[in-house]
Amino acid sequence: MADPSARRRSRGPRYPWAHVLLILGALLMTFPFLWQLLMSVSTNAEIQSVPPQPIPDRLHFSNYAEVFERLPFLNQFGVSVLITVARTAGQVVLCSMAGYAFARMRFPLRNVLFIALLLILMIPSQAYIIPQYGLVQAWGLLETPWAIILPGLFSAFGTFLMRQQFMSLPIELEEAARLDGANPFQVFSRVMLPLATPGIFAVAITTVLYSWNDLLWPLIVTTREESMPLSVGIATLQGQHTTDYAVIMAASVMAMAPIFVLFMLMQRRVIEGLATSGLKG
């Protein structure tokens, strides 16, 4: 008797047009990244030539070395890592606790506060810049990493995501833990939090991506090269009259590499977390 799987393989894909569309979509999505890689090893003249020259005559890896001459790259990389780690740790802890409170605990004005939280999601982040700057300035934190870290320690989106994650867990687990004598913090930390791992990964990776690429707020509160994260440092490479696009692309590739590797390693958990956290309310 013929193997059904072998028979399916001999017939080829069931929807060939769908595979063609997916391949075209994948090429479309990866084209900017491939274009960036080619620009990072080109000369500035090749990049600005008309018509565009997609393939350079010779690979100029010296652009990557020039990044270290134009920027305190390692110092700014360290600032970016510090900001990203601190923001991610803060959001995982605070958003998990707030999300659990909104999902499982009963307290006065809970629904009103949750609606206020949802309203925060609808207000553009630019509206907070002036009051945030006033607070950071009053606290004497300008030109320090804390000026960037503090406003990013908590987010309404992370709280909403964790609330949805906790609401998807069976309430019988909590009741069983309470019958065994666990207090509310023990129920949260030892029973519910380990089960909410997919949501925690989703909050962590979205915070990492946002913090690593955040430009506007760090650009406002930092002016010294040593206190800038990489996102701001790369932006300063753009000149008033001329811009070396090849060096900017090389710096962007180096800044993007750690996040790309992290996402590739954790993509299954991230997709699982987003899928299980946002569908149940």
UniProtKB/TrEMBL annotation:
Residues that span the membrane, as ranges: 15-35, 77-100, 112-133, 145-162, 191-212, 245-265
Membrane topology: Multi-pass membrane protein
Cross-referenced CDD domains: TM_PBP2 (cd06261)
Domain of life: Bacteria
Major location (coarse): membrane
Cellular compartments per GO CC: plasma membrane
Pfam families: BPD_transp_1
Subcellular location: Cell membrane
InterPro entries membership: MetI-like, MetI-like_sf
GO biological process, one term: transmembrane transport
UniProt keywords, alphabetically: Cell membrane, Membrane, Transmembrane, Transmembrane helix, Transport
PANTHER family xref list: ABC TRANSPORTER PERMEASE PROTEIN MG189-RELATED, ABC TRANSPORTER PERMEASE PROTEIN MG189-RELATED-RELATED
Family membership noted in the UniProt record: Belongs to the binding-protein-dependent transport system permease family.
Protein name: Sugar ABC transporter permease
Organism per entry: Tessaracoccus flavus
